[in-house]
Amino acid sequence: MQAFLAPAAYLLPSSWAFGAAKALALPLAVLPSPGLTAYRRMRRAFGQGRWRSFQLAWGWIARPFQDFVMHKRVLYGRENIFGWRIEEKNADEVRKLRESGQSFILATGHFERAALLAIASPCITPGNLIQVTHAPPKQVHRPYDLRLRLQFGTFLKTLSTAWRRPFEFAYTNTDQSAARLLYERLKLPGNVVSISLDAPWPARSSGSYCRPFAGKRERRFSTGATQLAKLTQSPVVSCVCWREDDGSVVLEWGSPIHHVENEIDTMNTLIDTLEAAIGQRPTQYVLEIGGERRWNAALGRWENL
Hints:
By secondary structure, this protein is of the alpha/beta class. About 45% of the residues lie in helices and about 20% in strands. It has helices at about 1-10, 15-30, 30-45, 50-75, 90-100, 115-120, 145-160, 175-185, 225-230, 265-280, and strands at about 85-90, 105-110, 130-135, 165-170, 190-195, 210-215, 215-220, 235-245, 250-255, 295, 300-305. Strands 1-9-8-2-5-3-4 form a seven-stranded mixed beta sheet, with helices on both faces. The chain has a two-stranded antiparallel ribbon with strand order 6-7. It has a two-stranded antiparallel sheet with strand order 10-11. Helix 2 (about 15-30) crosses helix 3, helix 2 (about 15-30) crosses helix 4 and helix 4 crosses helix 7 (about 145-160). The protein starts with a helix and ends with a strand. About 40% of the residues are buried.
C-alpha cells in the first residue's frame, strides 16, 4: 500500500490518486474476506440489490485507502487544507461556546478521516485541541498491526501538523495519565477535548455498557466521555462529519448538553446521532457496521431484523 499509494498521492491529480486507492481495494472487495463478508453485511443492513450492495462493500473497504491518500497529500503539500470549504450545520449554539472560551467535549465517531481533519481547523475548534485516542501499535505481529500502524499513524501525524496549531494527544491505552490530563484541561478555559464515542471497549473494563449500535445487536461503549463531562461540569456536543463529492466538508452539530445528569442516558443520546449518520452514509464510516440490524431509510433509524 505504501509503495503504491504514497507515490500516487504525490504525483497524480487528486481525482486520479483517489481512483487509484479505490482500484487497489478492488481485489479485497472480491475476495471471500473481507469482500464477501462485507457484501453480505451491507446487503442485510441496507436491503439493497446485489450491485448496490457490492458498491457499498467496495466503498467501505476502500475508505481507509482513500483516507491514506488524503493524509499523504496534505503532508506532501499537494492538498491545500487551508483552502477547504467547511460548512457547518446547526452551529449557532456551538458558536456561543466558542465565543465564551469555555472548554467543552466534542463527541464524534470514526467517520472519514479526511472529514475529521476539518474538525481540527482552528476556526472550528479554537484554542487548544486535545484528541483522545489509542496509540498506534509499536510492535508488529500481524499484517493488520502493520496496516494499523501505517494508516492510523499517518492520520495522527497529519492531524497534529496540518493546521499548525496547539494540539495534544491523550492516549488511553498507555497509562493512567490521560484521564488526569483531560480533567486538568477541561477545568481551564480555551480547551476542546475530542473523543470518538464509538471506539471499541473491552468487555471487562469498568465504566462501560452495552447497547445496539448500527448493524450490530450489541456493542460495548465506554462512558468515559460523559463521566468526564459530569465530573468537570463541561458541556458535551456531538458532531458528525462527511465529505461531499465536490470535496467540501460538512460538520453537523448536535445541541450542546450543558449538564450531565445520567451518564448512560447522555451516552445514548449522543450515540443515537452517530448511528443515524452511519445509516445515511455507510461508506464514510471506517469501523465495522454489522449486518444484524437493518437501516430504515424512510424512518431514519436502525431496526432489528
